[in-house]
Amino acid sequence: MKYTLENPVVSKIGTEKYKCVVNWRHGKFIADEPDFKGGHDKGPDPYTLLLSSIGTCTLATLRMYIDRKEWNIPEITVSVNMYIDEVEGKKVTVIDRDLQFSTEITAEQRERLVYIAKVCPISKTLEGDIKVRTFAYGKDEDVKKHLYPDDDITVVWKPELCQHAARCATQLPQVFNPKARPWVNMDGATAQEIREQVAKCPTGALSIAGK
Ligand code: SF4
After folding, report:
1. In angstroms, what is the span from residue 4 Cα to ligand 1's centroid?
2. Considering all CA atoms of the chain, what is the largest pairwise distance in Å, rounded to the nearest integer?
3. Best probe residue, ligand 1, of 2, 146, 161, 168 (max atoms within 8 Å of C-beta)
4. Which one of 76, 96, 135, 198 has the minimum C-beta count within 10 Å?
5. Quick one: CATH architecture of 141-209?
6. Where in the chain are all domains bearing CATH 3.30.300.20?
7. Which residues of the chain form CATH 3.30.70.20?
8. CA of 157, closest atom in ligand 1
9. Which protein residue has the closest C-alpha to ligand 1 atom 6?
C-alpha cells in the first residue's frame, strides 16, 4: 500500500464557526461554511472543494492532452455542479461537468475531449470504489500511536519518513500490515526477526527503541 500524497492533508478547526485551516504542500488556506449554515463564508465550503477537485483535475488532464496533440485551444473553462437524486430508494450523487473551449472544435475532437475528461484521475477516483476509514486519537496519543512495544523491544515508526515502499509489509507481513490497526503486530515474529526487518527499512522510518 502506498498513499497517493507524500504527506496527508491536515486540517484544523478551533471554536470559531466553521473556519478550518487546511495545510497543503506550500502553505495554508481557509475553508468555511456559508452564512446560511452558520459559518462566515471565509473560504470555500466542503462541496465547493470537492467540485473544484474534479474541475481542476479535468482542466490539467485536458491541457496535457491538447498540448500533446498540438491543438490550438488556448483556454478551457469547466463548470461543475452536483445534485443528489433518489433512485429506487437509494441516494445517488450526480455530478454534471460542462466543458467550454475558447475555439471551435470538431465532432471528433469533442468526442475525444469528453472521453479524456471522463478518465481524469479524480473522475476515476470518484467513480470507483471509495472507502473512508476513520481513526480517533486523544491528546498525546498522537505520539504514542507510533510506538509498538513488546517485552523485549519497541518499534518506532516515523510516518513523515515512510515512503510507503511496502518493503516491510512484503517481507514480514505477519508483523507489518498497513491494512490492520495497529499496523505493527509485535506478536507476529520474534524480536530478532523484527529487529532485522526494521534494519532493512530504506528511509529510516522504522527504528528500535529500548534494549
Ligand atoms: S520499509 Fe520503511 S519506508 Fe517502507 S513501508 Fe515500511 S516503514 Fe515505510
Report:
1. 15
2. 71
3. 168
4. 135
5. 2-Layer Sandwich (3.30)
6. 10-127
7. 141-209
8. 7
9. 168
Ligand 1 centroid distance, CA of 122 (Å) = 26
2 confidence band (pLDDT: 50, 70, 90): low
Of residues 178 and 21, the one with the higher pLDDT is 21
Say how many Å lie between the CA of residue 179 and the centre of ligand 1: 14
Report, in angstroms and rounded to the nearest whole number, the Rg of the chain calculated over CA atoms: 23
Q: How far apart are CA 211 and CA 208, in angstroms?
A: 8
Angstrom distance (rounded) from CA 99 to CA 50: 17
Q: Which CATH number fits domain 10-127: 1.10.3720.10, 3.30.300.20, 3.40.50.2020, 3.40.50.2300?
A: 3.30.300.20
Exposure pattern of 56-65 as b/e (b: 16+ CB <10 Å)?
A: ebbbebbeeb
Global pTM reads: 0.72
